[in-house]
Amino acid sequence: DENRGTVYFGTGSPSSDFYGGNREGENLYANCIMALDAATGTRKWHYQTIMHDLWDRDISCPPNLTTITVAGRKTDVVVQATKDGLVYVLDRDTGEPVFPVEERPVPVKGLPGEHPWPVQKYPVKPKPFVRQVITEEELTDISESAHQAVKAEFDTLESRHKFLPPSEKGTLLIGYSGGAEWGGNAIDDEGILYVNANEEPWVVKMIDANRFDHKKGISEGEKHYLKNCAMCHGADRKGGAQFPELLQLKERMKKEQFLKLVRSGSGRMPAFPHVSETEVRQLLAYIWGEKETLSVEEAEHLAQDRQQQDTVFGFRPRYLVASWKQFKDPEGYPGIKPPWGTLTAINLHTGDHLWQVPLGTYPELRERSIATTGTDNYGGPVVTAGGLVFIAATKDSKIRAFDSSDGKILWEYELPEAGFATPVTYTAKGKQYMVIAAGGGRRTPSGGKYIAFSLD
C-alpha cells in the first residue's frame, strides 16, 4: 500500500509441522497476516489465523488489497485466503476483521507432550470455499470399487474435526495443499474475489522418535533419514504426491549427485548444511542399501558433531511423521466426491458467494460419463476490466477464460505443458495481451515455454 507506506504479507507455520510439544503457546508470529512499515520494518499490527499450528496451514499466498462498502461505510481492506478454505477481510489500518470472526473450542487431546491451543478462529463471513470436515458421506462415488477401497482406509483414520491433533493412529487432514494455494487470487474493481482451490485430503500418521533409538537393528543412516527426510518422503521411503519415492533412488541417481543434492538442495528440496559429512555418508548407505563403515576417528568426530548440533542447529521432535500421503482411491483420484478443484467468486461487500464451478477435467473420466470433476490445481487467476477471469493451473494443461458474472467457460486452450503459474495481462501499442508460463511438472510432462495471447 504505497499511500500508507505499508507492506502486507502472510507468514509460514512453525516447525516441526505436525508436532508442537517443544513450542508451547500460540506460536507468534507464525500463521499471521502482517502489516509492516515499509520504510522501517516496524510492525504495525498482526492477525494470527491459526494458533499453535499442528496441520501445516501456513499462509500460502499473498493477500489482496481493495476497498469495500459495508453497512454504508467505505473501508480499505486487506483480504487473505487460506489453505483451509477461509477468507479473512481485515481493516488495513487496524487489522480488525470487517466481518465477525468467532473463536470456538477445538479438540485438545494430542500426542504426549503436546499442547494444542484450546480455541481456533472461524470467520462467519465469507463462508468457507472448501469442505471443512470429511465424513463418510463425502467419500468418493465415482465407482463402487473406489468407494469400498477408500472407506476401508477411512475407517482406520480419525476425521471428525478439522482441528484434530495428529496421532499415531492416523488423521485425515484438510488444508495441507489447499484450499487456497501459492498462486494467489484476483479481485476486480467491483470488489469480487476470485479464488481457485484444491479439495484433496491427506493422511498423516505420527510415530514416537524414541522407538528408533531403542529399536534393535536400526542403522545410524536410518535414524538420520527419519529425522531429516521422512517428513516428505515417508518413513517407508515410498514418497507421495510431489515427493518422490526413494526405494529405487540408486537406479536414478549417482552417489555424487546425491551428496551434492543433500548439501545444496534443488527445487523444493532444501539444503541440509547441519548434517555432518559422516552422517551424509551413513544416510547414503541406508538409502543405497549398503553396509555402514566408520573408522574410530570418524566415530569420535561424529560424537563431537552431534554435541555441536544440539547447541547450534536445534532439536529432534519427540514425534516424527511415519506416513504422509494423499487420500486417494486405487486409480489415483482423490478419495472424496468431486469437485476436486474449484474456482469461486465471492462478493466482498456482502461476504456472499456468487458462484463456484469445477476447475479442470480428467478426460478419461469424462469418457466414462463422469461429469467434470475439477483437478488439483497450482497457479492463480487474473481478472480483466472486460469481465474475463483467466486461469490455467490444472493438470489437463488447459488455460481457460471464465465469465466473471456467472462462472461459465467462454474460451479454453490446451497448452504444450501444464501452466502451473498465474497469468499476467498487459497492454502494448494499444493492444491487450495475456501471458502464461507453461512449465509443467508435478508429475505431468515438464517444459519451459511462455505462451502469449492477444485479447481481440
Record the SSE blueprint.
Blueprint: E1 6-10, E2 32-37, E3 43-48, E4 64-70, E5 73-81, E6 87-91, E7 101-105, E8 119-123, H1 144-154, E9 171-173, E10 186-187, E11 192-198, E12 202-208, H2 210-214, H3 220-228, H4 230-233, H5 249-252, H6 255-264, H7 277-288, H8 296-312, E13 319-326, E14 341-347, E15 352-358, H9 363-366, E16 382-383, E17 388-391, E18 398-403, E19 409-414, E20 424-428, E21 431-440, E22 446-454
Helix pairs in contact: 3-7
Q: What CATH first level of the largest domain would be assigned?
A: Mainly Beta
Helical proportion?
A: 10-25%
What fold name goes in the CATH topology slot of the largest domain?
A: Methanol Dehydrogenase, Chain A
- State Rg: 24 Å
Q: How does CATH name the architecture of the largest domain?
A: 8 Propeller
InterPro entries: Cyt_c-like_dom, Cyt_c-like_dom_sf, PQQ_b-propeller_rpt, PQQ_rpt_dom, Quinoprotein_ADH-like_sf
Cofactor: pyrroloquinoline quinone
Pfam family, one: Cytochrome_CBB3
Family: Belongs to the bacterial PQQ dehydrogenase family.
